UniProtKB/TrEMBL annotation:
This is 6-phosphogluconolactonase. Keywords: Hydrolase. Its EC number is 3.1.1.31. It is an enzyme of class 3 (hydrolase). It comes from the Bacteria. Gene3D superfamilies: 3.40.50.1360. It catalyses: 6-phospho-D-glucono-1,5-lactone + H2O = 6-phospho-D-gluconate + H(+). Hydrolysis of 6-phosphogluconolactone to 6-phosphogluconate. Pathway: Carbohydrate degradation; pentose phosphate pathway; D-ribulose 5-phosphate from D-glucose 6-phosphate (oxidative stage): step 2/3. InterPro entries: 6-phosphogluconolactonase_DevB, 6PGL, Glc/Gal-6P_isomerase, NagB/RpiA_transferase-like. Belongs to the glucosamine/galactosamine-6-phosphate isomerase family. 6-phosphogluconolactonase subfamily.
Amino acid sequence: EVVVYENADLLAAAAAARLVTRIVDVQAARGSASVVLTGGGTGIGVLRELRESHARDAIDWSRLDVYWGDERFVPADSDERNEKGAREALLDHVPLAPERVHAMAPSDGEFGDDVDAAAAAYAKVLSGAAEAGADVPAFDILLLGLGGEGHTASVFPDSPAVHETGRSVVAVRECPKPPPTRVSLTLPAIRRAREVWLMTAGEAKADAVAQALAGAPETQIPVSGARGYRRTLWLLDRAAAGKLTKV
Ligand code: 6PG
């Protein structure tokens, strides 16, 4: 499913409105909901829009579980942390239950500079919250951005992470997008989500969007493999949709 908005601001506002509606619907149907956040300008921008939305308090923040699809392995108070960006944009402005915010460890946390230990610990958090027989929860909504060369979360073309078949959470080193060390869900873990929403804007992403929607192999265009098992929703601005053939 692909929805195109006139510009990046409208995209962010619409994505935030959709997020409120979806979370409210899930909470009405099942009591609680889970959302997986992403980093990057688009992902954080949507959270900022959500904070400013007057509809935001239709969400029961005490019954929302928050996870991350990837995180930079930097000190907790670094401006490069996706968690810090999310807290400043939204999370510190709403009454979330702190125990339901599941952050990936920073590089100055309990695991020190051991990024493999941080990745293993997050895998344990996910398996602890998963349904019987699964090692990752069936997240209700998993938000993702994408890069111009097709990366999503911290899964880059032809990288160890995109070839990972066993684990759900991996340490990423020498990441082409700084900072270089990260923790990321793998594509099989992403595909456990009920819904995956890909949100991106700008002409620089148009090639990757077109290749992914044309079914490019995920090892070359990782975002091509970012699919929800119930729904995959692309929220684009006109520039990022610029290379899609008019269907
Ligand atoms: C990160 C994100 C990354 C981001 C894309 C898009 O931690 O950097 O996980 O995957 O979503 O690079 O970033 P922009 O929205 O800023 O283009």
